[in-house]
Amino acid sequence: MIEVKDLHKAFGAVRAVDGVSFAARDGEITGLLGPNGAGKTTTLRMLYTLMAPDRGQVLVDGLDAAADPLAVRRRLGVLPDARGLYKRLTARENIDYFGRLQGLPEAELRARREALVEALEMADIADRRIEGFSQGQRVKTAIARALVHDPRNVILDEPTNGLDVMATRALRQFMLKLKAEGRCVLFSSHIMQEVAALCDRIVVIAHGRVVADETPDALRAQTGEANLEDAFVKLIGSEEGLAA
Amino acid sequence: MNAPAQPARRARAFLTVFLKEVRENLRDRRTLTSAFLTGPLLTPLLFLMLINISVNRQLDKAERPLKVPVIGAEYAPNLIDVLKAGGIVPEPGPADPEAAVRRQDTELVLRLGADYARSWRKGEPVQVELIYDSSQREAGASVERVGKLVEAYARQQGAMRLVARGLSPMLAVPVVVARRDQATPQSRAVLLFNMLPYLFVLTIFIAGMPLAIDLTAGERERQSLEPLFANPVARWKIFLGKLAAICTFSVASLVICLVAFGIIGRFMPTEKLGMEIDLGLGFIVHVLWLQLPLIVLLAALQSMVAAFAKSYREAQTYLSLLMFLPVLPSILLMVLPIRAQDWMYAVPLLGQHLAILDLVRGNGLGVAHLGLILAGTAATALVATVTTMQLYRSERLAISV
Hey, which residues does B305 pair with through a beta bridge? Predict the structure, then answer.
């Protein structure tokens, strides 16, 4: 369970996030949708305590991120926009590194790692160095690395960026599996088909503010548009930055 | 799901980061080459070469026939004979000796005036001119050699004149200077070994640089700091793990360098100059001790500078500038012949420099000085480390774009 209350963050004169509030529940997939530059990544960065908000509060499973950032990070699995894998290490070594930083005992780490390698169908690449991996293989490795400590809450920043059709499909299946396991899945995207296909709840962000926080059906009803694409355009107020 | 980690397990973070950074960098051929091959071995080889050149040159100068252009050789056949006996080979002089010396066509020119013979016969002092350029390092030995021969000839002729007049030549020598050089063979070695401390620092610097860049600016450029900092580990622990990895590479490089010096020391032609140096095990152990806190200091400084840079290339530029810092004490001591004061031992770099020269000189190193060096440098290293830790806390650091 992730709760965000009235987050603000400014970079100089630019108010990147200007009063964002929403909640992402366990057993649901929540989509953070908005055009490029709407403040999605900054909001997520404050969620996983990389940045401190100027104002507002982040609660993860009821824990205050400002008061106990380490406890919050332990409950989060994070796939940042920048995947940042270590090229000279193999996929398994990349996963192990984060597993150990999460404080997993070796036996548990091994079991979790192998389970993820199997679930993400990456057995054939697990002992190869990241150098030379395809974009899809990199994302798989980064996801395995983010989930090695079995977090209850999963944050994915633009997870399908740069993936081909097959890899995107596989990733969506995997996200549904995470939801079925009862986890709280929060992901950001600027691709509405994706959000519409996966999400139980959609939070639309534009210009650093939440402009809608509904189920897909309610969103259509609210805007009076039968088509989700038209609904989004109406909410955001322009067609800028929205990809089909 | 998600049991909170035990404190004992979390203490592993430092070791985890350290081992990962070491392993990753051991797989990078460029880093390996510079840390374990070119860095530590280039300086000893360079040093050996320099020593050999300088020793052989000095020996050559003393023994080899020296060609000297002489103007007016016909006026003083006796003087010329004496010079010839002293290994000087007179050559016809150039038309404009001053210009020739300035153009570096020749090191020096000996000029005898046309009135040489006339003044000689009258018993008046005659002038012999040595034209040279003292800003040419080369000229010093030759000028001294010719000058000494001329002076010896003058003394000998003066004594003969006194004898001819029935006086004791001793009359003309009321005072005799007896030089008693207190330099031991080791202390003479110091002149040549002045650059040794700098070479050690350079080795440490070169070995640490690729790591310092890779672990901060490099990781930032590859955008891997962001996921790394999403782990439940305090950033200062991550930094300390990285710092330890940098130090490990520096220490390894320095050990290789010292061993190479120990081996090379046996092939140095220092006995030819009456020098004795000991770069053996005792020397190696002492230098390692001295450099240990300095290694931490340099690693922290390198990380600090690299953390300011947004990219690998930018960090490289900054760090090449930082490389001039360790040269300062060496240059300072070469230009200003300052007497070593106790407090100087507490200054990082300067202390190590003085101590290594003490060791080379064979004076040994007092416990008080050793304590000052270790305490002074360790305190500075601590300040640099804590400052860089603070830098690691900044939000800006993790965000690459």
Answer: none
Residues A165 and A117 in one domain: no
Number of other CB atoms surrounding residue A124 within 10 Å: 9
Per-residue pLDDT tens digits of chain B, which is 401 residues long: 444 445 455 558 999 999 999 999 999 998 899 889 988 998 888 888 877 777 776 666 666 788 889 998 888 888 888 888 888 888 888 888 888 888 888 888 999 888 888 888 888 888 888 998 888 766 777 888 888 888 888 888 888 888 888 888 888 788 888 877 776 655 655 666 777 888 899 899 999 999 999 998 889 888 899 999 999 999 999 999 999 999 999 999 999 999 998 888 777 766 666 666 677 888 899 999 999 999 999 999 999 999 888 888 999 999 988 888 887 877 777 677 677 788 889 999 889 988 988 887 777 788 899 999 999 999 999 999 999 999 888 888 877 65
Closest chain A C-alpha to B215 CA, distance in angstroms: 11
B24, B231, B239, B396, best to mutate vs chain A, most A CBs in 10 Å: B231
- β-pair type (B66-71, A201-206): unpaired
Same domain, A215 and A109: no
* All domains of chain B in start order, with CATH: 11-55+186-398 (no CATH), 65-180 (3.40.1710.10)
pTM summary value: 0.80
| A74 CA: distance to closest CA in chain B (Å) | 5
Alpha carbons B222 and B401: distance in angstroms, whole number: 10
Of A50, A76, A100, the CB nearest to B229: A50
Query: How many structural domains comprise chain A?
Result: 2
Write out the residue range of the structural domain in which residue A108 sits. Answer: 80-150
Mark yes or no for CB contact A151/B2 under 8 Å: yes
One domain, residues A168 and A70: yes
Residue of chain B whose Cα is closest to the Cα of A149: B2
Tell me: do A70 and A184 sit in the same domain.
yes
Contact B228 A84 (CB under 8 A): yes
For the complex shown, is ipTM > 0.95?
no
DSSP letters of A140-203?
HHHHHHHHTT--SEEEEESTTTT--HHHHHHHHHHHHHHHHTT-EEEEEESBHHHHHHH-SEEE
Interface mutation vs chain B, best among A102, A139, A156, A183, most B CBs within 10 Å: A102
* A144: contact with B, CB 8 A cutoff: no
A221 in the same domain as A158: yes
Inspect the interface and report whether the beta carbons of B232 and A151 lie closer than 8 Å.
no
Q: What residue ranges in B93-200 does DSSP mark as E strands?
A: 108-112, 128-132
